[in-house]
Amino acid sequence: PAYDLLIRGGRVATVSDVFEADVAISGETIAAIGRGLPGARREIDARGKLVLPGGVDSHAHIEQLSAAGIVNADTFESATVSAAFGGTTTVIPFAAQHVGMKLPRVLEDYHALARKGAVIDYAFHMIIADPTKETLETDLPALIKQGHGSIKIFMTYDLLKIEDEPLLDILLAARDGGAMLCAHAENHGIISWMVKRLIARGYTDPKYHAISHARVSEAEAFNRLIGMAALLDQPIMIFHVSTAEGAKVIRDARGQGLKVFAETCPQYLFLTADDLDRPGVEGAKWMCSPPPRRAADQEALWQALALGDLQTVSSDHAPYRFDETGKLRAGPNPNFKQVANGLPGLEVRLPLLFDAMVSKGRLGLEKFVELTATAPAKIYNLHPRKGSIAVGADADIAIWDPQREVTLSDEMMHDLAGYTPYAGRKLRGWPVAVLSRGRVIVADGKRSVEAGSGRFLARNGGEAAKPTGRLMPDMDPEQNFGARLL
Ligand code: DUC
Ligand code: ZN
Ligand code: ZN
Ligand code: ZN
């Protein structure tokens, strides 16, 4: 036979087209796309189904040690299996440095965990929490060259936050190495002040977590980060945009020609702060940072996705069990400040978006493919190997039944959080078979892939991480009395 596998008669979707075609696979890659392709050793009948690129989830916390010393609920195996069940075939989790840790060792440790457990392909963002001279001048350049083309920093969290001056050092190191700089951008002082005031006045329930992350803390930090990145002409990716004002800051920056990319997440499109308003401590299941906001923000974020101000929707998967090992680690009645932040979401990201975008028709199938696969693959320099159905690309494919109706429940999830924030929602459209590099890894609700078969994807920063070449006057020798600063 001409091919190893043929996906016959489905509707194929890319960012620009939807068309009926057979997709032929030889080995690990797509060998041909066309009508009436010749036989293969094996066929999958995809008539009535959609043949989509597997999702690329560019923001997920997996088996990650938090600064407070809690490891989240998943292993690389459970997290990537859950991703696969939801149609995602590439993930970019974090290799997280904490203060005092050497970055090369951090990367070795996360590589070892992923090598052992991952069932889909992966890259890493390197979290920098301790920007020493050694980290920035020796370790980081070497690690970027080894295929880690993106860095992440936090502007908040007591043990992780990077102040303005070291942030400039990190932006410069990213620029010198050609890496993307991703950021959790919230104003730390505003949040700390609000937390203390709320708790001192007895407002300790989970819902006050949403109030503590005052809306302005997001727009303020976006502005500050964008200003610093612009000073150095360094491209940035702003993670998890949650407010209308935050989206506007990004739109304005892009309007000025700055290389600012941004993502949002399903929790900001499908949840609001009211979801945290439940009896007792139950609302802790919906606590993440930034918090879900209001219906008007959801609308603003959809609009920003439609206009291209935001380019991707990632999960920010950060699973903690609702028990004494996770959310309730401080005891059965914690105040909101004592509850670990994060939601499980690797598995439901695509089905939630498919239901909203394709089944209910908001923005449509091509935009779904773009936001969930092609755009993140391009921004993080995994394209054309990942993120699209194209000849020569890895055969990472999700076959969707657009009519399958599923009611989400805690029990059906494959991650180890033990719950989904979306339980009870009825969705139409579900991935019924998922392939990674030509291997069927999930079909008809069954896993058929062994732990550790996912591969590391080495990449440099690529096109998205290249500076624009337009210098601010302060940094331009022709306009700053000849000073060479970059
Ligand atoms: N926010 C979360 O909700 N979880 C993980 C990390 C973060 O910043
Ligand atoms: Zn490495
Ligand atoms: Zn974050
Ligand atoms: Zn995150």
From TrEMBL:
<protein>
    <recommendedName>
        <fullName>D-hydantoinase</fullName>
    </recommendedName>
</protein>
<keyword id="KW-0597">Phosphoprotein</keyword>
<dbReference type="InterPro" id="IPR006680">
    <property type="entry name" value="Amidohydro-rel"/>
</dbReference>
<comment type="function">
    <text>Catalyzes the stereospecific hydrolysis of the cyclic amide bond of D-hydantoin derivatives.</text>
</comment>
<dbReference type="InterPro" id="IPR032466">
    <property type="entry name" value="Metal_Hydrolase"/>
</dbReference>
<dbReference type="GO" id="GO:0046872">
    <property type="term" value="F:metal ion binding"/>
</dbReference>
<dbReference type="InterPro" id="IPR050378">
    <property type="entry name" value="Metallo-dep_Hydrolases_sf"/>
</dbReference>
<dbReference type="GO" id="GO:0005829">
    <property type="term" value="C:cytosol"/>
</dbReference>
<feature type="modified residue" description="N6-carboxylysine">
    <location>
        <position position="152"/>
    </location>
</feature>
<dbReference type="InterPro" id="IPR011059">
    <property type="entry name" value="Metal-dep_hydrolase_composite"/>
</dbReference>
<keyword id="KW-0479">Metal-binding</keyword>
<comment type="similarity">
    <text>Belongs to the metallo-dependent hydrolases superfamily. Hydantoinase/dihydropyrimidinase family.</text>
</comment>
<feature type="domain" description="Amidohydrolase-related">
    <location>
        <begin position="50"/>
        <end position="440"/>
    </location>
</feature>
<dbReference type="InterPro" id="IPR011778">
    <property type="entry name" value="Hydantoinase/dihydroPyrase"/>
</dbReference>
<dbReference type="GO" id="GO:0016812">
    <property type="term" value="F:hydrolase activity, acting on carbon-nitrogen (but not peptide) bonds, in cyclic amides"/>
</dbReference>
<dbReference type="Pfam" id="PF01979">
    <property type="entry name" value="Amidohydro_1"/>
</dbReference>
<keyword id="KW-0378">Hydrolase</keyword>
